[in-house]
Amino acid sequence: MLTARRIGLLLAVLALLGIGALGVTLAQSRVVIVDDRGKEIEVPLPVERVVVAGTSLYTEILVDLGAKELLVGVTDSPNNPPEVADVPRVGSPFQPNVEVILSLEPDVVLGAVGDARDRLEAAGLVVVTPVLFIQRIPDIFRVIEVVGLLADRDVEAEIAIGRISERIVALESAVVQRDRVRAAFLFAPPDLAPYAVGRGSVEGELLARAGAENVFRDIEGIEQVSFEAVVERDPDVIFTDPSQIENLTQNPLLQDVSAVREGRVFGVKASALTSTRVAEVLLQMAQALHPDAFE
């Protein structure tokens, strides 16, 4: 458990990382966490049975922190780490099976939202969802910290956040003095106009940190744009999910785009953008934008 001294140190570290206070109150036998709704959630300690009813990020964090043994159920996601192959599934992250979760008798359910959360709370379960949507890197840190507190892995969580932060700072330092490359992050479903990523998103933040000038920086969040808009803004580099590269490179309407013409369309696994591997994604993007900085 955290001592008063460690609580102070934790808050100082979070302030340095730009995360701000977590909205956490600690006592000997409970922890109170302010969730995504601004609601105070009281969690009795120790937590010994955990069900993940949301994104695989929660599962990934518990495995990374050495707390896999707490998991009694996880959502059925292709992004789950292999270590949880033997853990029972509780449905999709978007529509978890409430009856299955109840049957597992968890101490805490992580990541449930909407109707599933309402039903689980009505049944008397404790549901903790620190962030509704991951929109920036500090949101990932917040989830790591909260999960670490619940799993009694607060030291490991601090180390994980520090390691990711250190890598991000080092990568930014490697490209900060270089000319920014005009780039776009597009999601390109087949036979549809692409979705462009703007400000207020993890993808937009990573573009900036990797040394790019986002040609769709005037967009808030993610919006569908026309093929003509992509041609007009003419990015020199495009990032997309690996499964969607050919939807861009083979599209006859995009052959005049510099990134397509010059073979600079790069795949970035979408699920990794909001994971504990976010620094690895940043490295991949920075290398694509500024390969000479990493020779």
State the order of secondary-structure elements, H for helix, E for strand: HEEEEHEHEHEHHEEHEEHEHHEH
Shape: globular
CATH superfamily membership of the largest domain? Nitrogenase molybdenum iron protein domain
Low-confidence stretches: 1-21
Helix fraction, binned, reads 25-40%
- Mean pLDDT across all amino acids: 92
Distance between the termini: 44 Å
What percent of residues are in strands?
Answer: 15-25%
CATH topology of the largest domain: Rossmann fold
Structural class: alpha/beta
CATH class designation of the largest domain: Alpha Beta
How many β strands by DSSP? 13
Major sheet: 6 strands, mixed
Total domains: 2
Radius of gyration: 21 Å
Please provide a written account of the structure:
The chain is an alpha/beta fold. It has two domains: 46-164, Nitrogenase molybdenum iron protein domain (Rossmann fold); 176-294, Rossmann fold, CATH 3.40.50. It has eleven helices and 13 strands. It has helices at residues 4-16, 56-64, 98-103, 114-122, 137-150, 154-175, 202-209, 227-233, 245-249, 258-261, 278-289, and strands at residues 24-26, 30-34, 40-44, 50-52, 71-73, 108-110, 127-128, 181-187, 195-197, 212-214, 222-224, 237-240, 265-267. Strands 8, 9, 10, 11, 12 and 13 form a six-stranded mixed β-sheet that branches. It has a four-stranded parallel β-sheet with strand order 5-4-6-7. Strand 2 and strand 3 form a beta hairpin. The chain is globular, with a radius of gyration of 21 Å.
